[in-house]
């Protein structure tokens, strides 16, 4: 019996050897951002070079993506071979052993070329656990024509007061021009990304060293009051439902005077195919309060440890985040459209500097972001526009709902902060902090 | 017809009814129109109703991002499959509930319906864990069974109300004639039950086609139906109204057409025996 | 003898669906019940432990809980009022003689076939968006300030969207019921000189009562678990203003990945659903016997 079985298995092994290896399918979960959708269309060189690998795309909206991917990875469902995750998740997930270390990415990969602040945030014990696809910081994008009309000149890094003043002067509600567009849609990756970093710049952290929530402090009160005031006065209608993409659409259609958001937006607002104001966009560093506003985000490709095709997956990740991919995009769509913010070499490339007027402010913003010291006081967490604890997704979204309500005028600033404090205390107590 | 209807009032009702109907239908019409616009025309102010450059470019763009046909086929297989499977289980149950009611039949029915009110999100993680251990994640079989279970209460109940309207004297007469159970079912019951079964089938295909929680969470790519197809358009990327409209039109068109063709049949079943 | 045989057979025939539903209820429900007493967060594996009623305490004392309860009732109630009220009016209108009745009916039934996700996306972006939406354009054309529906009237907007989807359903059932109304009775009433209103109250409404009950029952089952419309449009906000119970459970389960808390929420929702079911059963029992 067992002889026969062995014989059968041997025969199977023989057949397996005899026929060429069957195509391996890589299921890639990704977010529906412009750069990712572009990548999806440009994989021909990769599939040509690797005919035995088939690519299967699952493109989802950010929140749905995060929910699907986290469920699958945490339960070890093994549905995805490559996932798109942010630099917020990477250290947390790596610590849980959910991600494969990416330490052997091939000779051409040149991991040392990755911008140090980005690489640092994606590593655990000196090993890279995710490869950055694009990186971003925050900056101000503004309409040069409207700024001129308002009789102002944008400094390299303005103060918050300058920004508020300019926003008021640029606003022309009759003609649907709103001085400032900021995120208002509730979500830890939406309005709370902006407000966490804005708060930090005002000297308002999420927690003190004992993990005690700080929303009852004066600094938060000032930050939120200013935010609600300027958005009411000079923001677009419906701001409390606007996230990154909504604001992008508004800016592209000429309805925003200024927009403080991720640097990655620069290549979209300056692309004449999509943007009606492409030739009138200026860039400045994010505003300064007690401290400059800091922001560091990277969409990265990671390989879950539950994948059954780790080698093929790594091969794809290496290709998609390589210099060669950058060059391929540059050849097809121009240098201004390559995924930004990940490699030093890109910012040293004269062609890129020429094609992308936003290159320097982007690099400066990224390099000035300090994940460990986001605000004026010492904090027990890492992160500039997020807080690097697993509970932050939920907490950030719950607090974001309150701040969104304040923006919509459904609650006062004081009420919102009080609720935020209460919610945070509850959640932290439930999660067992201080740990 | 004893009541006389003046031409004026007929015209009055016609205009009023058409107005209301067009108003109700307008969002769908607008979506279809927008799907043929360029992105710039889609947000033009004032809006362009008919006079714009018609283009099918959005459909090409949407198709290039995800394979519509595969999602479409998955939707068809999952919705039809879960309905047929459901009918297979529900027909005998409803039949015996209608003709051999026990004391607790009503309670049993209500309990079945109440399972439909269970919030899906609360049991997602347990289900996901089960699906993982059984290897059912991203399989058509897995999602078909789940959708069948979700709609089973409705199927049983619809059939039950239908069967109850079949006069039991006919069955008794058949029995007196010495018809076997098989004959009873095949020759007497089935012809009378077919309209009810048909409309149950239609309604459940529609419900399964539109189910967007389990399909989104338990499938990934190979088994993913049209609800996943639309999920990648649920947040804007720059200007996206026209693309959203094209994807929406593609997702709803098949079921809309099916619904229209079968609406007479469907309405009969929808009444759940409420109309005597 | 034959009866006993048939009874057994009847049991056997009911058995598959009952057993399946029982499994469907009990396996996930059992697991949910088990998890609801655990401290279990997907994001911190290896920390699972028994914590008694803590999850229930947290869920019930959540500031969002009572708001969510109220919103759930408002949502179900609001949609029921609009669809039943609107459905009766529409059914009366469609019952009148007119040209092209078939096409009118096709147009009216259409929203019922639309995926909830799609209809929410379309309403949110192409109609209610305060900058590019059609409503904003209408407001501007009339010289008014565009209304930001989803921020200012979030629950009302969702009620509107959901009502649009369910109005056709109500209309068609009521229309079918109306068409079965005995026209001789109507004529008799007319002979007696009854006015339109009194005819409606004394004749039409009682005739429709059964159909109305059915509409209420079916819609309640689906409306208690409205979810996609909220997820797509408001994410339950601003604040908790459009969070219903289903959405609250969802946010625990899939935003916080707090399996324990979500399980407790799920159990509470099941209990509430059963209370509603008992209530409905009483109501239905009376009308449908």
From TrEMBL, chain A:
Leader sequence residues: 1-23
Keywords on record: Signal
CC per GO annotation: periplasmic space
Source superkingdom: Bacteria
Lineage of origin: Bacteria, Pseudomonadati, Pseudomonadota, Alphaproteobacteria, Rhodobacterales
UniProt-annotated location(s): Periplasm
Organism per entry: Paracoccus thiocyanatus
Pfam family, one: SBP_bac_1
Entry-linked Gene3D superfamilies: Periplasmic binding protein-like II
Name of the protein this chain belongs to: Sorbitol-binding protein /mannitol-binding protein
Family the UniProt entry places it in: Belongs to the bacterial solute-binding protein 1 family.
Coiled-coil residue spans: none
From TrEMBL, chain B:
Keywords noted in UniProt: Cell membrane, Membrane, Transmembrane, Transmembrane helix, Transport
One of the Pfam families matching this protein, by short name: BPD_transp_1
Biological process (GO), any one: transmembrane transport
Membrane topology, as annotated: Multi-pass membrane protein
Recorded superkingdom: Bacteria
UniProt-annotated location(s): Cell membrane
GO cellular component: plasma membrane
Domain ABC transmembrane type-1, first and last residues per copy: 72-262
Transmembrane segments: 12-33, 76-96, 108-129, 141-163, 184-209, 240-261
PANTHER family cross-referenced by the UniProt entry: INNER MEMBRANE ABC TRANSPORTER PERMEASE PROTEIN YCJP (PTHR32243:SF18), MALTOSE TRANSPORT SYSTEM PERMEASE-RELATED (PTHR32243)
Similarity remark: Belongs to the binding-protein-dependent transport system permease family.
Name by which UniProt lists this protein: Sorbitol ABC transporter membrane protein /mannitol ABC transporter membrane protein
Source taxonomy: Bacteria, Pseudomonadati, Pseudomonadota, Alphaproteobacteria, Rhodobacterales
From TrEMBL, chain C:
One of the protein's GO biological processes: transmembrane transport
PROSITE patterns: ABC_TM1
Cellular compartment(s): Cell membrane
Entries under Pfam families matching the protein: BPD_transp_1
Similarity field: Belongs to the binding-protein-dependent transport system permease family.
PANTHER family: ABC TRANSPORTER PERMEASE PROTEIN
Name of this protein: Sorbitol ABC transporter membrane protein /mannitol ABC transporter membrane protein
């Amino acid at each position: 019996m067992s002889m026969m079985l062995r014989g059968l298995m041997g025969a199977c092994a023989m057949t397996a050897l005899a026929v060429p290896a069957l195509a391996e399918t890589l299921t890639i979960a990704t977010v529906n951002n412009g750069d990712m959708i572009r990548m999806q269309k440009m994989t021909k060189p990769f599939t040509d070079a690797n005919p035995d690998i088939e690519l299967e795309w699952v493109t989802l909206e950010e929140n749905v993506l995060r929910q699907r991917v986290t469920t699958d990875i945490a339960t070890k469902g093994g549905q995805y071979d490559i996932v798109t995750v942010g630099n917020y998740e990477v250290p947390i997930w790596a610590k849980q052993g959910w991600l494969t270390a990416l330490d052997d990415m091939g000779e051409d990969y040149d991991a040392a070329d990755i911008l140090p602040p980005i690489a640092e945030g994606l590593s655990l014990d000196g090993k890279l656990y995710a490869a950055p696809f694009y990186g971003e910081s925050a900056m101000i994008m503004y309409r040069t024509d409207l700024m001129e009309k308002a009789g102002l000149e944008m400094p390299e890094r303005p103060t918050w007061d300058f920004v508020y003043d300019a926003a008021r002067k640029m606003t022309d509600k009759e003609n649907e021009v709103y001085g400032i567009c900021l995120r208002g849609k509730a979500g830890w990756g939406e309005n709370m990304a902006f407000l966490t970093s804005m708060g930090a710049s005002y000297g308002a952290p999420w927690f003190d060293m004992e993990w005690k929530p700080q929303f009852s402090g004066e600094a938060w009160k000032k930050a939120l009051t200013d935010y609600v005031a300027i958005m009411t006065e000079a923001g677009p209608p419906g701001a409390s439902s606007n996230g990154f993409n909504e604001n992008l659409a508004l800016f592209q259609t000429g309805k925003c005077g200024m927009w403080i958001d991720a640097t990655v937006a620069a290549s979209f607002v300056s692309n004449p195919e999509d943007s009606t104001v492409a030739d009138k966009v200026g860039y400045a560093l994010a505003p300064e309060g007690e401290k400059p506003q800091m922001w560091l985000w990277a969409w990265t490709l990671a390989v879950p440890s539950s994948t059954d095709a780790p080698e093929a997956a790594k091969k794809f990740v290496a290709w998609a985040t390589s210099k060669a991919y950058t060059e391929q995009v540059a050849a097809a769509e121009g240098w201004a459209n390559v995924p930004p913010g990940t490699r030093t070499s890109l910012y040293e490339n004269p062609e890129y500097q020429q094609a992308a007027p936003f290159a320097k402010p982007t690099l400066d913003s990224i390099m000035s972001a300090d994940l460990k010291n986001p605000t004026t006081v010492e904090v027990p967490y890492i992160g500039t526009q997020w807080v690097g604890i697993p509970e932050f997704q939920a907490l950030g979204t719950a607090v974001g709902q309150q701040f969104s309500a304040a923006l919509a005028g459904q609650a006062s600033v004081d009420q919102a902060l009080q609720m935020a404090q209460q919610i945070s205390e509850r959640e932290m107590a439930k999660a067992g902090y201080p740990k | 017809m004893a009541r006389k209807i003046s031409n004026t009032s007929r015209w009055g009702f016609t205009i009023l009814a058409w107005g209301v109907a067009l108003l109700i239908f307008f969002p769908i019409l607008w979506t279809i129109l927008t799907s043929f616009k360029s992105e710039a025309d889609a947000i033009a102010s004032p809006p362009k109703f008919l006079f714009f450059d018609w283009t099918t470019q959005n459909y090409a763009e949407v198709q290039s991002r995800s394979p519509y046909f595969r999602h479409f086929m998955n939707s068809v297989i999952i919705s039809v499959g879960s309905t047929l499977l459901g009918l297979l289980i529900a027909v005998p149950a409803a039949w015996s509930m209608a003709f051999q009611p026990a004391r607790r039949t009503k309670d049993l029915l209500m309990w079945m319906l109440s399972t439909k009110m269970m919030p899906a999100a609360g049991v997602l993680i347990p289900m996901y864990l089960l699906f993982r251990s059984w290897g059912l994640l991203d399989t058509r079989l897995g999602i078909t069974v789940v959708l069948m279970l979700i709609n089973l209460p409705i199927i049983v109940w619809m059939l039950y109300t239908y069967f109850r309207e079949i006069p039991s004297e006919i069955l008794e007469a058949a029995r007196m004639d010495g018809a076997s159970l098989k004959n009873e079912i095949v020759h007497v019951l089935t012809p009378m039950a077919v309209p009810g079964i048909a409309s149950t089938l239609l309604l459940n295909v529609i419900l399964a086609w539109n189910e967007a929680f389990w399909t989104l969470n338990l499938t990934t790519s190979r088994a993913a139906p049209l609800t996943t197809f639309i999920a990648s358009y649920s947040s804007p990327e720059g200007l996206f109204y026209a693309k959203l409209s094209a994807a929406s039109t593609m997702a709803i068109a098949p079921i809309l057409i099916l619904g229209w063709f079968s609406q007479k049949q469907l309405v009969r079943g929808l009444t759940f025996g409420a109309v005597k | 003898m034959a009866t006993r045989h048939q009874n057994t057979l009847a049991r056997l025939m009911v058995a598959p669906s009952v057993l399946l539903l029982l499994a469907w209820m009990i396996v996930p429900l059992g697991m949910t019940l088990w998890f609801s007493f655990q401290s279990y967060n997907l994001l911190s594996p290896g920390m699972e432990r028994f914590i008694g009623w803590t999850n229930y305490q947290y869920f019930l004392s959540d500031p969002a809980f009572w708001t969510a309860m109220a919103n759930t009732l408002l949502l179900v109630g609001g949609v029921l009022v609009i669809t039943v009220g609107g459905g009766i009016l529409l059914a009366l209108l469609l019952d009148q003689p007119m040209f092209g009745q078939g096409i009118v009916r096709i147009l009216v039934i259409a929203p019922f076939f639309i995926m909830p996700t799609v209809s929410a996306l379309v309403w949110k972006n192409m109609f209610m968006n305060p900058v590019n939406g059609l409503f904003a354009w209408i407001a501007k054309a009339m010289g008014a300030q565009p209304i930001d529906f989803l921020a200012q009237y979030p629950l009302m907007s969702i009620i509107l969207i959901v009502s649009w989807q369910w109005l056709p359903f109500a209309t068609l059932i009521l229309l079918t019921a109306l068409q079965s109304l005995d026209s001789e009775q109507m004529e008799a009433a007319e002979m007696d000189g009854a006015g339109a209103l009194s005819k409606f109250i004394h004749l039409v409404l009682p005739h429709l009562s059964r159909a109305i009950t059915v509409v209420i029952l079916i819609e309640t089952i689906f409306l208690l678990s409205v979810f996609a419309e909220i997820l797509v449009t408001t994410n339950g906000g601003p604040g908790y203003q459009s969070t219903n119970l289903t959405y609250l459970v969802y946010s625990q389960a899939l935003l916080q990945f707090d399996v324990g808390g979500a399980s407790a929420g799920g159990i509470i929702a099941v209990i509430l659903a059963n209370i509603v079911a008992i209530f409905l059963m009483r109501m239905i029992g009376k009308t449908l016997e």
